[in-house]
Design goal:
The chain has 14 helices and eleven strands. It is α/β, with parallel strands linked by helices.
């Protein structure tokens, strides 16, 4: 079976190098070990290490796992917020540069590496322009949706409705991933950042997904494809509470109906969490994902083996769900 990793991270080094030359925030600095500190503002940001920037080495690592060919769908991850924290024109140019660099990698690894787009959300018309360029001109297979627009948590803002309509029209998935904006400043000083890293990001992606549901965006756009990272955050476990207390949103269906329309991955270092996600979303809405290099594929495979996925579900979760959702083709030579 050919495996497809739906949650994989690689960044072009050129993007961070350019940020190192920036004099004002957001900016970056080299860590002296091949990685970077990305600073949104003084004292707040994220850190990446050398492995994030060597795609050839990453692909070699996957080949050495001994489980056959592994293809990947690249997600920007927390850095997706960066393009919405710049002035409109600068954010547009930065997103296009990122998209062109990752689309080039898609050409370098045909059928093995698939790129998803950076989209700046500060200006809706610009967001649609960049999205169209990425999908229609560069051949990218999806777009990244940060949990907020900079410090603004309202990814459900009314002005963004045309953007979601265009995503739906293009029939490409949105990868909803937490960033380090909404909860980092609130939680990062607790236990040397452990509270934010372990829980803050989970809460952020959960709140963002519920904004898409409670705002009616998922209802008004029934063909919108949303991939909620990290086994759905806290939402599958709290689905009953969402339905019980979500009536004030006045949706046509219980909130959990729209939640189950979303997709998720297997990024949870806990076999029970993986199993619950599969039980809740169903085996047609869960995709194998590792969060590599934040988490190691070998550990993901080990925990999924503990779950004991029924044979009838294995091919869906490991490959066909993602290939169908992103409209991918297996190379003829596979």
């Amino acid at each position: 079976m050919r495996i497809l990793d739906s949650h994989f991270h690689w960044r072009p080094r050129e993007v961070l190098e350019a940020l190192c030359d920036r004099k004002t925030y957001p900016k970056a600095e080299r860590d002296g070990k091949g990685g970077y500190h990305h600073w949104r503002r003084p004292g707040f940001g994220s850190q990446t290490w050398a492995e994030w920037y060597d795609l050839d080495a990453q692909m070699e690592h996957l080949d050495k796992l001994g489980v056959g060919t592994i293809d990947v769908i690249n997600s920007i991850g927390p850095f997706s917020i960066h393009f919405s924290e710049l002035p409109v024109d600068e954010g547009r140019e930065a997103a296009i540069e990122y998209n062109e660099l990752t689309a080039a990698a898609q050409q370098k690894y045909p059928g093995r590496y698939w790129a998803t787009a950076a989209v700046p959300l500060v200006d809706t018309a610009t967001a649609i322009e960049v999205l169209d360029h990425a999908i229609l001109k560069l051949g990218m297979v999806g777009a990244n949706l940060p949990g907020s627009v900079g410090d603004d948590p309202r990814i459900d803002a009314e002005r963004l409705e045309p953007f979601y309509a265009r995503v739906e029209e293009l029939s490409v998935p949105l990868l909803l991933h937490p960033t380090d904006a909404i909860f980092q400043e609130m939680l990062s000083d607790a236990y040397d950042g452990a509270l934010h890293l372990s829980l803050g990001r989970v809460v952020e992606v959960s709140v963002a997904a519920m904004r898409l549901i409670f705002s009616g965006i998922m209802e008004r756009h029934p063909n919108l494809k949303v991939v909620m990272s990290h086994t759905g955050g806290a939402l599958p476990y709290q689905a009953g509470r969402l339905d019980k207390n979500g009536k004030q949103a006045r949706l046509a269906e219980p909130p959990s109906v729209y939640l189950k329309r979303m997709y998720t991955d297997t990024v949870s270092p806990h076999s029970l969490g993986m199993k619950f996600a599969i039980d809740f979303f169903g085996d047609e809405h869960v995709m194998y994902g590792t969060d590599y290099p934040c988490w190691m594929p070998a550990e993901t495979l080990r925990l999924l083996d503990e779950v004991g996925i029924p044979k009838a579900s294995q091919e869906k979760i490991f490959s066909s769900n993602a290939r169908g959702l992103f409209n991918l083709r297996v190379p003829a030579h596979a």
